[in-house]
Design a protein that fits this description.
Largest sheet: 7 strands, mixed
Strand content: 15-25%
Number of helices: 6
Oligomer: single chain
Structural class: alpha/beta
Shape: globular
Strand order of the largest sheet: 2-3-6-7-8-9-10
């Protein structure tokens, strides 16, 4: 078994837990963070959080997950939050990658194995890595309890249909872009659940903060 660190979220995401990885050791994240043009990754909250002194213990916590998830294919998990250790998550809703992005196929396979290991939990899975998802589905089905959300990297370039293999698309726009169409407007995610319900809107639009 491998231990996975689980985070309790706050602010807009209060009421959720998540499994994240280290944004700053992720080559894809670094490339996107330093990209040119109107790319949402340039406003990455995770990079900013990891640069703040009082979060000095967060990076090694996330780096542990990076190394565990990327080094081996895991089929049996132990989940750790603080001093509590369990073999099941038992959350109604759970988030993948509140920090970091998919970096390898092992990482993706292990997230899918976590979902299979917890069939009663609905997982919201945000990613920009269409390439890895496309490769994964050649030989595997995405578990029914996983909601795939494509995180559109381009600001003000709204996609009104999710890409193939995704249930939803999350778009970021400048605040002045068609405010009436913005449907992620600051409410707590646990009170909305638009991203965690396949029957709700499959196009999400949020203003850049």
């Amino acid at each position: 078994m491998q231990i996975i660190n689980v985070s309790k979220l706050n602010g807009k995401l209060a009421g959720f837990r998540a499994i994240g990885t280290n944004t700053k050791s992720n080559k894809f994240c670094e490339k996107m963070y330093n990209s040119k043009g109107d790319i949402i990754c340039k406003f990455c909250y995770s990079h900013k959080a990891l640069e703040i002194a009082y979060n000095k213990n967060l990076e090694p916590y996330l780096q542990h997950n990076t190394e565990v998830l990327e080094n081996n294919i895991i089929t049996e998990f132990v989940y750790r939050q603080g001093g509590n250790v369990t073999t099941k998550l038992n959350d109604a809703y759970f988030r993948f990658s509140q920090h970091g992005e998919l970096d390898t196929m092992n990482h993706l396979i292990n997230f899918m194995n976590i979902a299979k290991d917890n069939p009663k939990t609905t997982f919201g899975f945000w990613t920009k890595r269409k390439d890895l998802i496309k490769e994964y589905v050649k030989e595997n089905d995405i578990p029914e309890n996983v909601i795939m959300v494509y995180s559109n990297p381009k600001i003000n370039n709204v996609m009104y249909e999710p890409p193939k293999n995704f249930d939803k698309v999350f778009n970021n726009v400048w605040p002045e872009f068609e405010p009436a169409k913005q449907n992620c407007t600051g409410q707590r995610c646990i009170d909305c659940l638009r991203c965690y319900d396949k029957e709700k809107d499959n196009v999400i639009i949020e203003a850049v903060k």
